[in-house]
Amino acid sequence: MHLKDSEVDAACHYIRRHMDTYSWWPKEAPGEAKREFELMCGTALSLNVWCDRWLDAGQCKKLEKSVRG
């Protein structure tokens, strides 16, 4: 994932919306992923690390498409 600082707010909104809507999102350990997300959503650098760890390729593509339109 290569989110820019200007995309962090939109990306965090997208991720939070998906976590609220789908209890299983992301697929691996969603509870742990949610806790870690709250710690890592502040900067593009840390959010990119979170995305690389928790999202699969398809989820990353959908996030990028949503953020970049």
Features:
4 helices; single chain; globular; 69 residues; mainly alpha; 70% helix
Question: In terms of topology, how is this protein built?
Answer:
Layout (H helix, E strand, L loop, with lengths): L7 H14 L8 H11 L3 H11 L2 H12 L1
Helix pairs in contact: 1-4, 2-3
Describe this structure in words.
The chain is an all-alpha fold and 69 residues long. The chain is built from four helices and no strands. The longest helix is centred in the first third of the chain and has 14 residues, at 8-21.
Briefly characterize the structure.
This protein has 69 residues and is mainly α. It has helices spanning 8-21, 30-40, 44-54, 57-68.
Cα-to-Cα separation, first versus last residue: 16 Å
**Biggest β-sheet, characterized?**
none
Radius of gyration in whole Å, from Cα?
Answer: 11 Å
The succession of helices and strands, N to C, reads HHHH
Percent of residues in beta strands? under 5%
Number of helices: 4
Number of strands: 0
What would the principal axes of the Cα set say about the shape? Answer: globular
Q: Flag low-confidence runs.
A: none
The structural class is: mainly alpha
Average per-residue pLDDT, rounded, comes to: 95
Fraction of residues in H or I helices: 55-70%
